[in-house]
Amino acid sequence: MAKNKKKTSSKVASLAAKTLKDKNASQIAKELAGSALSQKQKKNQTGSELEDKAARVLKSKKYSKETKQLAASVLAQSNKKR
């Protein structure tokens, strides 16, 4: 299985931290933020379940620009073979 070596940028990590602290942020935004932050320093990569959620977020019109930015980052760090 090909490992994706991309890491979360500082800009997206900052957005993710703010999202996790935001009491009004949606559950999906917080899941995406947590995943993005977990990929800032470590060699973690996105799991298949979160890949599916992130893809649905990007296709939907109901999510904010910030949530879509987190989703895009998470997808960019997914397994290349999936």
Topology summary:
Blueprint: H1 10-21, H2 27-38, H3 48-59, H4 65-76
Helix pairs in contact: 1-2, 2-4, 3-4
String of helices and strands: HHHH
User: Pairing-aware structural class of the strands and helices?
Assistant: mainly alpha
Give unreliable regions as ranges.
none
Radius of gyration: 12 Å
Oligomer: single chain
Helix fraction?
55-70%
- Count of DSSP-assigned helices: 4
Output mean pLDDT. Answer: 88
Beta-strand percentage?
under 5%
Global shape: globular
Q: Please, how many domains?
A: 1
Find the count of extended strands (DSSP E, 2+ residues): 0
End-to-end Cα distance, whole Å, is: 9 Å
Most strands sheet: none
Describe the structure.
The protein is mostly helical. It has one domain (10-76). The chain is 59% helix and 0% strand. The chain contains four helices and no strands. The N and C termini lie close together (9 Å).
Task: Output the keywords.
82 residues; 59% helix; mainly alpha
In short:
By secondary structure, the chain is mainly alpha-helical. The chain has helices spanning 10-21, 27-38, 48-59, 65-76. Helix content is 59%, strand content 0%.
